[in-house]
Amino acid sequence: MIAGARAGAEGAYQELLAAYGPRLYGYFFRATGSHHDAEDLLGELLLRLVRHLPAYEDRGRFEPWLFSIAANLVRDRIRRSKTAVPAASLEAEIGDRPPLAEAIAGHEEPVETGLLREQMRADLAAALESLEEQSRQMVLLRHFGQLSYREIAEIFNCPIGTVLARVHRALKVLRVALEDGDESK
After folding, report:
1. What is the CATH number of domain 1-83?
2. pTM over 0.70
3. Average pLDDT for 54-65
4. Closest Cα to residue 48, out of 83, 79, 73?
């Protein structure tokens, strides 16, 4: 696939997107909490892939290279979003919920179910946000990007033991934060 894309073969980029797109999208969604941002980042990644793939040196390590681009895009987006003020809309989708206008019309699941699911998502997002940025990215790459610890170590240019320790500590912090959230309800 990579050689085909580099050679300009028809459909090669679509094959790469089909192979890696779902995992990248999952990573982007968990990192940003927004379907819109995840789709936007996936599009940006594809543009960067088209631009930078000819310079890629194929040493059998395409996936870590691709996810390092993804991690950089997420970091840039987070930096930019800290200065932007989000706009609200009745027509906008929030998470995987339909637009508020449709929910108000009564075409959806029982309110309690949606509220519980949304609360769990909000609790997870808040817990993830409480982590130090590099640890947060490592957890997201491991559990939502489905990368191995070795691949994450390559992306962050650090020993695999460091990645293991940071992910382990971050998961402990998440577990405690989520358990505390359940007890307070």
Report:
1. 1.10.1740.10
2. no
3. 81
4. 73
